[in-house]
Amino acid sequence: MRRSIVLVLAACGAVSEAGAQSTSTIVATGLKNPESVAVNAQGQVFVSVVGDFDRDGDGAVMRIEQGEAEPFASGLDDPKGLVAHQQWLFAADKTRVVRIDGKGNTEVFAPESAFPRPPVALNDLAVDVESGALYVSDSGDHQGEGGAVYKISPKGAVSLVLDKTRYPDLHTPNGLLLDGASHLLTADFGAGSVFRIKLADGSVEKVADGFGAADGLAWDQFGRLFVSDWKGGRVFVIPRAGAEPVLLTEGLKNAADLSVEPATRRLLIPDMGGGRLVSVAITVPGAEVDEEPLPFNTAVAFPDLQWAGWKGETEDGRFDTLRPIVLTHANDDSNRLFVATQHGAIHTFANDQAATETTIFLDVRDRVSYHDNTNEEGFLGLTFHPRFKENGYFYVFYTTNKAKLTNVVSRFQVRKDDPNQADPESEVELLRYEKPYWNHDGGTIVFGPDGFLYVTHGDGGAGNDPHENGQNLGVLFGKILRIDVDHAEGGKNYAIPKDNPFVGRDGARPEIWAYGLRNVWRMAFDRKTGRLWAGDVGQNLWEEIDIIKRGGNYGWNLREGFHPFGAKGVGPRPDLIDPIWEYYHYDTGKSITGGSVYRGLRIPELDGAYLYADYVSGRIWALRYDEKLGRVVENRPITSRNLPVLSFSEDQNGEIYFLTTTTNGRGIYWFSK
User: Fold this and answer.
1) Which of 253, 339, 543, 635 is least surrounded by Cβ atoms within 10 Å, i.e. has the fewest?
2) Does the global pTM surpass 0.85?
3) Which pLDDT band holds residue 1 (cuts at 50, 70, 90)?
């Protein structure tokens, strides 16, 4: 049965050649018809060379070492597409796909006989790094006949993804690239266009066109898409979904398949007619992002601090890890700091680098559920009322052990006779989340400049948002809420602000401020602009940073970052707000820790920068967003110790700290020149 075709012009139109184009640098010369380039996990660079087109066995894969090309795998027929995955290189070799090990030994991975019909000219390869499946394009003949795209399973079974019977406008498919985990981009050489294929149903939408003879495709680690024009000898960059392509570089004889070299932040381009491999700096001409490292370090804050009631080991001699999860202040000009641990104790101490000990402000470990094997639960949120000095109120978010799979938001009050002691019996519950799974709890609670309490919870957990909570306005999962804790109405211990975006809408919870979020792991207001920043943890491939707006739909689970997600995934849509920034899992990190905008005085060079990190890789960046330009202008790494960053927090002076797990008590860090 013929599948229906959906054609949506997502980012079409003439490409832009404005701005100063980047100049290329020669990496290696003397290559005979270099077609494709790949970089493996060790940073080694490989190039496929076709040799004599009409002579089988004359093709090879070369390894580039310090500008010299040395033979790596020989005896191939017409190797074009090349991709690295795990310990292997895979090459599209005329009518078969071969696999090459680390010593250059080759074996046929998918022979001609495995294809549903005999391939004509296999061209490019893409790999799904999650499943290990390969995708290969067949460019067909010179008349545009026989073109197709195939999927190859990790065991070598081949199935058809797309051909002219399923998409009549298909001409000469060349470059391939996964767009998320369930969509595939195809550069059509004959049409000069880039198409997106939804793998679930084979439907197709045009992403961009005007590329002449579109050949290679590549993502960089921050989601910029590169497209080469073979005949025109040009390479274009699409800075984000829905944006116009911009000319990156030109002057090549034939710009073939592309690859990104993450270590150098450069794009590698085989110049087929020129017999060379060149590179160009990754940028967007006219919309550059400063990615140079900042001259700052991280240092232990409060190095002599001893934590009350914690020793670092249990009575039977095992490590007892301290997990400081929130650091904040009390809005009372006392210059005290409060640090909550994920196990359920809140410590307080003087904001003094010479501080030597903490006092336990509140201990609710007896009612908090935390276990290392379900470490997205526990005590997750703490914030103080803007008028804490008057009313003594503060608010917490934790997983209760009094009920199964349940998170609560509660209010506590300080003792009237001791400002360093809270009353554990003063708890008043405001919100209760009865969740289906243990993960994706979110847990940030923070007061906005409007005096209302903002609360975030993840989508309910598991994977893929199985209950589709993110897009369901009838539930509180996958949302940011905004509630009035100074009033009570409707039998609840809070009220609904009248200007909340979904007040009065049938089937919608009036507490909701924004939705379509997977698992916001830390959000914070910029104390100068009032802008709400959030880091939303991705699932398969992309982590994202969002600026939260009233009533905004941030796309989950239809989109992950700038990319369609899952069988129902979609391209850019006016009703869905894309992030301002994203980064890729496999060479950058796997779990974003959202941060705060720096407004302190110690390091004025960081003023206005959003500091964030990745929990898995331990990398830290300072990002700047230009409101007038509507884009990120800086994303500069800061030298880090590759620690798992649990949270960023700020004191009453705007100085920013980050927290990490510790067995020696030194779990609070800050930044130094």
Assistant:
1) 253
2) yes
3) very low
